[in-house]
């Protein structure tokens, strides 16, 4: 245990990682998304991509335990199941790419994906109509690749739901359920590959504590009547994380 604590204390940027995951938990709690968009750009300053993906998924399991019970009854489980199944098939592609791309390249991909996602949300991009089953499979597949490559499990699905016409409560529940399922899928893939070091597990456990607490705080703040306030608060925090995580500052 002392050795594990020493390893944890030697983690680069530990205080900033704690602050980032705490802010991400509040946003995740009241919007249902935003953890990776906030945490991954900041974590990229201090940690290699493989560690970020593992930590992101392991801590995600903690927050999902707090959020899924309420979301389960409000979500469209059939639709989320199709998205998750498609992501299950493509996560290995993302993990394969992550192992072969330069860390700086992955950071630029993170910045581009997070920035474009935020831009689409802020400008109010919308579509009308129903998405077919092949369309859902495509959205889930893209989410799986991005999740395995960068830890950004949510952007494709977040854009799909927030750009649609569904009520905020339904959007929140579906997103929570999908992200929880994808966390399990990616963690299982990493364990099968033997890609999770003990030091990474310790770091994830340490970050899971503030994340779990702030997720509950965020959930307690959620009120569908204040949808606009929630979204703009989330957008502001995401923008700060994306800008601070750009490789140009080094």
UniProtKB/TrEMBL annotation:
Q: Which organism is it from?
A: Roseovarius halotolerans
Q: Which family does it belong to?
A: Belongs to the 4-toluene sulfonate uptake permease (TSUP) (TC 2.A.102) family.
Residues annotated as transmembrane: 15-39, 46-68, 80-99, 106-127, 139-163, 175-192, 198-218, 230-249
* GO CC annotation, single: plasma membrane
* Subcellular locations according to the entry: Cell membrane
Q: What broad class describes the main subcellular location of this protein?
A: membrane
**PANTHER family the UniProt entry points to:** MEMBRANE TRANSPORTER PROTEIN, TRANSMEMBRANE PROTEIN YFCA
The protein's topology relative to the membrane is: Multi-pass membrane protein
- This chain's protein is named Probable membrane transporter protein
UniProt keyword list: Cell membrane, Membrane, Transmembrane, Transmembrane helix, Transport
Q: Which InterPro entries match?
A: TM_pro_TauE-like, TSUP
Q: What is the lineage of its organism?
A: Bacteria, Pseudomonadati, Pseudomonadota, Alphaproteobacteria, Rhodobacterales
Which Pfam families does the UniProt entry name for this protein?
Answer: TauE (PF01925)
């Amino acid at each position: 245990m002392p050795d594990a604590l020493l390893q944890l204390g030697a983690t680069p940027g530990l205080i900033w990682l704690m602050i980032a995951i705490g802010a991400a938990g509040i946003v995740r709690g009241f919007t249902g998304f935003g953890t990776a968009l906030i945490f991954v750009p900041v974590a990229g300053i201090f940690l290699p991509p493989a560690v970020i993906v593992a930590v992101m998924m392991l801590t995600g399991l903690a927050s999902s335990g707090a959020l899924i019970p309420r979301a389960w009854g409000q979500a469209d489980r059939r639709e989320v199941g199709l998205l998750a199944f498609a992501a299950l098939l493509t996560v290995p592609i993302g993990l394969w790419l992550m192992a072969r791309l330069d860390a700086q390249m992955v950071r630029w991909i993170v910045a581009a994906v997070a920035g474009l996602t935020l831009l689409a949300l802020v400008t109010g991009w919308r579509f009308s109509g129903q998405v077919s089953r092949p369309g859902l499979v495509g959205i889930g597949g893209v989410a799986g690749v991005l999740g395995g490559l960068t830890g950004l499990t949510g952007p494709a699905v977040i854009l799909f739901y927030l750009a649609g016409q569904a009520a905020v409560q339904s959007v929140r529940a579906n997103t929570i359920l999908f992200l929880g399922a994808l966390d399990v899928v990616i963690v299982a893939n990493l364990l099968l590959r033997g890609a999770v070091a003990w030091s990474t597990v310790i770091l994830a456990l340490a970050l899971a504590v503030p994340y779990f607490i702030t997720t509950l705080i965020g959930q307690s703040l959620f009120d569908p009547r204040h949808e606009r306030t929630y979204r703009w608060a989330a957008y502001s925090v995401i923008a700060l994380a994306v800008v601070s995580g750009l490789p140009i500052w080094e």
